[in-house]
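User: Second chain of the day. Same drill as before.
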Amino acid sequence: MDARFTQPAVTRRPSKSQRFDVFGLKANRTLTLFNAGPLQAWLALESAPAVTWYCERALVIEEGDRQRVADFYAIRDGKEELLFCATKVELEAGEACLASWSGFTNWCAHNQISIRFAPMFAQEDCVARANWEQIVRELSAFRRYASPDLIAAVRSELGIPKSIDELCTLFQQTDPIVVKVAVFQLVHQGLAISTDFDRAHISSAMIFSAP
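Assistant: Same format as last time:
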């Protein structure tokens, strides 16, 4: 599916907002995000293998006396969606807050675009969030060094669960950092998992397997 939105509609920094510059692996470019909500939503999109594309601040909704920026456009499982990082008022109102955007919701329905509140990591998911931060950071820096052949070879070895240390021993002619990045690439694509991922920080002893 071709992406409907590829660049942000708004680039101006909101007053008093925090600014985060990150590299979006799935968008293959640098993103500038404002405040912690969109930062967390971006990381959740990166961590979901079903999401193949996203764009930050994809469009501006102007209807009646209201203006609202759609925080993300995404393609998930081949279907389009627009995501909003909910404000406190929107969280309390739920989907009822969309009632005043009838033109926008009708346009979305006509184009088969889902409207959702953006996914977030819960407070208790701090370990998983930290692990994904590490994966995205290392893939951003080193993924170009992990060849498709290496990634495929590592995946074939994960038919039997193995630690990163064990994989580095098997691929001892390859830089251990690149072997680890190959594992991270598989995790990012949903082709490798670890049962300890949500409760232990990534280490060379963590066991991964092919699902």
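The mean pLDDT is 92.

User: Great, on to the next one.
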